[in-house]
C-alpha cells in the first residue's frame, strides 16, 4: 500500500513540475528570458495597484527596420540582436527603481518603472544612455532603437491603454524628420488619431454626396500674364465644419488608400471641365491633375485614363499629369516604366515638386517627362540665399537643355515672376496671378485674360 502511495506522490510531483514548466513558458520569453507580454502586463497591473500613490512611466522599445536585419544577416543574427537589446535593457533598468521588463512581441520590448525624477531629468538620462543601446553591436550596420515614452497619469488606467499611448509616441519618433531615438507622448497625438478616424469615417459619404470640390489654379505666362493652363486641386466642403484644408485630409487618405478614389474623382471632374469649354466654344487650355504613387501601382491606370478621355471626347494633350519627384524615388525603374505607359497614350507628364527629392540628374534624362515643375521653396528662398539663386538658375537651364518645359509654382510677387522669366522660365502659378478658384470664377478669369492680351 505504501508503494502505491509513493508512486502516486511521484506522479503528482511530476504533474506539478509539468504544470510549472507550462506556466513558465507562458510567463517567460524563451529567447530573452524577459517576461512574456501577458506576464509583463499582469506584473505592471499588480505594481500600479500596489503603489497607487506613486508615479510610473512606461517605455516601448523596438528596432527600426528590424526585418532588414533578418534579410541581410539571417534569422540567427536577428535573434542575437534581440538578446542584445534585452541585455542592454537589463543594464538600463539598474539605474531605475521598481523596474519591470518584458518582450511584448517580435522586436518590441517594454519597460515600466517608478518615475522619481522630473521629466527634464529623465530626458537627460535618456540622452546620456541612448548610445549604449545603439552602439557597439555591429560596425557594419547602423542600429536605431525607437523608444516611445508615456508618463502614466492615472495608475488605474488599463495597461493596454498605457501601451497604446507609448505606441503613439513611437510613431511620432519614427515620423520625425530629425531622426531621433525617443519621443514622449502628448495629448495631441490622441487628438490626431481621433480626428483622422473621424475623417476616415466620413470620407465615403463625402465622395458620394459630392462634398469634394475641384477648384482650378491658373498657370500663366510670366511676362504677359496670359492664361496658359490650370491645375485641378481638391477642397472638402464639409456640411458642418466648412472648408477643410487639404493638409488635414490628404495625408490621411494617402495612408488609408482612399487617395486613389479621390484622385479618380478629380480626374473625371477635370475632364468634364475641359468638355464644357469645348461645348461653349471657349479657348482651350490644358488642365493638370495629380497622380499619386499609389495610383501608379495600378496596372490598369493607362486604360482608366483612355476610357475617361473617350467618355468626354477630349484630346489627350489637354490633360496633364503631375507626378511628384519623390514618387520616382520609390522604385525608379518600375515607376519610369509605368509613367511611360501613360505617356504612350498621349498624356503630358509634369514632374511636380522638382528639387525636393534630390533625384539623380543622370536618371532625369531617362525619365519620360515633358515638364519640370519647380518646388515653391526655390521661389520663396532665392532672394534670401545666394546658394538658392545659383541652384534655381541651374535648374531652369537644365530644363531648357533637356528640352523640357519649366513651370514655377508659389509665385507671390511681380519681382519673382520677372526674375524667373529672365532665367528662361516662362510659365508659373501662384497667388500673384490667382489663388485656386471655382470653375465659374476660372471661366471669368479666362475671358478677362484673353481680353487683356487682345487689347
Written overview of the protein:
- This protein is an alpha/beta fold.
- It is about 55% helix and about 20% strand.
- It has 18 helices and 14 strands.
- It has an 8-stranded mixed barrel, surrounded by 5 helices.
- The chain is elongated, with a radius of gyration of 30 Å.
- The relative contact order is 0.07.
Please give a quick description of this structure.
The protein has 455 residues and is an alpha/beta fold. It has 18 helices and 14 strands.
Q: What is the alpha-carbon Rg in Å?
A: 30 Å
Mean pLDDT across every amino acid position: 84
Q: Report the uncertain regions.
A: none
Helix percent reads 40-55%
Q: Could you give the distance between the termini?
A: 122 Å
Tell me what portion of residues adopts beta-strand conformation.
Answer: 15-25%
Q: How many runs of DSSP E, i.e. beta strands?
A: 14
Give the oligomeric state of the chains in this entry, treating copies of one chain as homo and distinct chains as hetero.
single chain
Keywords:
455 residues, 14 strands, 18% strand, alpha/beta, 53% helix, 18 helices, eight-stranded mixed β-barrel, five-stranded mixed beta sheet
Any chance you could write out the topology, listing elements then pairs?
Elements lengths: L1 H26 L9 H14 L5 E8 L2 H8 L1 H19 L6 E6 L2 E7 L4 H16 L10 E8 L6 H17 L6 E3 L2 H22 L3 E10 L5 E12 L3 E3 L1 H11 L2 H22 L6 E4 L2 H4 L4 H12 L6 E6 H6 L1 H13 L3 E7 L6 H4 L6 E4 L1 H6 L4 H16 L3 E4 L5 H10 L3 E2 L10 H16 L1
Parallel strand pairs: 4-5, 7-9, 9-10, 10-11, 11-12, 12-13, 13-14
Antiparallel strand pairs: 1-3, 1-4, 2-3, 6-7, 6-14, 7-8
Helix pairs in contact: 3-4, 9-11
Amino acid at each position: 500500500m505504501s508503494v502505491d502511495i509513493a508512486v502516486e506522490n511521484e506522479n503528482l510531483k511530476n504533474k506539478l513540475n509539468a504544470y510549472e514548466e507550462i506556466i513558465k513558458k507562458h510567463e517567460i520569453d524563451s529567447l530573452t528570458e524577459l517576461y512574456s507580454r501577458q506576464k509583463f502586463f499582469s506584473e505592471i497591473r499588480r505594481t500600479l495597484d500596489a503603489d497607487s500613490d506613486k508615479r510610473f512611466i512606461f517605455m516601448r522599445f523596438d528596432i527600426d527596420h528590424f526585418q532588414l536585419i533578418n534579410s541581410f544577416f539571417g534569422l540567427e543574427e536577428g535573434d542575437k540582436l534581440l538578446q542584445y537589446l534585452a541585455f542592454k535593457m537589463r543594464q538600463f533598468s539598474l539605474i531605475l527603481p521598481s523596474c519591470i521588463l518584458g518582450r511584448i512581441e517580435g522586436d518590441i520590448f517594454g519597460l515600466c518603472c517608478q518615475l522619481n525624477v522630473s521629466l527634464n531629468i529623465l530626458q537627460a538620462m535618456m540622452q546620456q544612455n541612448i548610445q549604449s543601446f545603439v552602439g557597439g553591436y555591429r560596425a557594419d550596420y547602423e542600429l536605431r532603437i525607437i523608444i516611445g515614452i508615456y508618463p502614466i497619469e492615472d495608475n488605474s488606467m488599463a495597461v493596454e491603454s498605457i501601451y497604446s499611448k507609448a505606441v503613439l509616441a513611437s510613431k511620432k519618433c519614427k515620423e520625425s524628420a530629425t531622426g531621433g531615438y525617443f519621443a514622449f507622448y502628448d495629448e495631441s497625438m490622441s487628438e490626431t488619431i481621433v480626428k483622422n478616424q473621424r475623417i476616415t469615417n466620413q470620407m465615403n459619404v463625402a465622395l458620394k454626396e459630392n462634398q469634394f470640390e475641384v477648384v482650378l489654379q491658373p498657370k500663366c505666362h510670366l511676362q504677359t500674364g496670359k492664361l496658359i493652363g490650370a491645375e485641378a486641386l481638391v477642397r472638402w466642403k464639409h456640411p458642418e465644419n466648412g472648408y477643410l484644408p487639404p493638409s488635414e485630409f490628404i495625408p490621411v487618405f494617402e495612408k488609408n488608400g482612399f487617395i486613389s478614389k479621390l484622385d479618380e474623382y478629380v480626374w473625371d471632374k477635370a475632364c468634364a471641365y475641359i468638355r464644357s469649354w469645348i461645348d461653349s466654344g471657349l479657348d482651350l487650355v490644358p488642365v493638370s491633375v495629380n497622380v499619386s504613387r499609389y495610383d501608379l501601382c495600378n496596372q490598369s491606370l493607362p486604360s482608366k485614363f483612355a476610357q475617361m478621355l473617350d467618355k468626354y471626347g477630349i484630346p489627350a494633350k489637354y490633360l496633364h499629369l503631375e507626378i511628384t519627384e519623390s514618387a520616382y524615388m520609390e522604385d525608379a525603374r518600375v515607376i519610369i516604366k509605368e509613367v511611360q505607359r501613360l505617356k504612350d497614350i498621349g498624356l503630358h507628364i509634369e514632374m511636380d515638386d522638382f528639387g525636393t527629392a534630390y533625384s539623380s540628374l543622370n536618371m532625369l534624362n531617362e525619365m519620360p517627362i515633358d515638364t519640370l515643375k519647380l518646388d515653391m521653396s526655390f521661389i520663396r528662398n532665392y532672394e534670401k540665399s545666394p546658394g538658392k539663386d545659383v541652384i534655381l538658375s541651374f535648374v531652369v537651364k537644365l530644363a531648357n537643355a533637356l528640352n523640357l518645359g519649366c513651370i514655377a509654382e508659389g509665385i507671390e510677387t511681380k519681382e519673382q515672376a520677372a526674375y524667373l522669366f529672365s532665367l528662361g522660365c516662362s510659365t508659373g502659378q501662384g497667388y500673384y496671378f490667382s489663388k485656386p478658384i471655382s470653375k465659374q470664377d476660372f471661366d471669368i478669369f479666362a475671358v478677362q485674360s484673353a481680353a487683356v492680351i487682345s487689347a
